[in-house]
Specification:
61 residues
């Protein structure tokens, strides 16, 4: 073992890093696609919901 050269792991680490970047990019695109960019949601100008949360609407039904 003393006379052996070190194993070169740099290509493996680079491949792993590229795989992680691509995987995270995929998950980020999916998150944005199904949340903010999916339609109907605006970060800057989201309208109010016109829902009546009063107790009388629940008691009468």
């Amino acid at each position: 073992m003393a006379n052996r050269q070190a194993f070169n792991v740099k290509p493996l680490v680079q491949l792993y890093n590229i795989a992680m970047v691509l995987t995270n990019l995929y998950f980020m695109i999916q998150f944005l696609r199904y949340s903010y960019l999916g339609g109907g949601y605006s970060i800057f100008c989201q309208g109010k919901f016109q829902i009546d949360f009063s107790i009388t609407s629940y008691v009468l039904t």
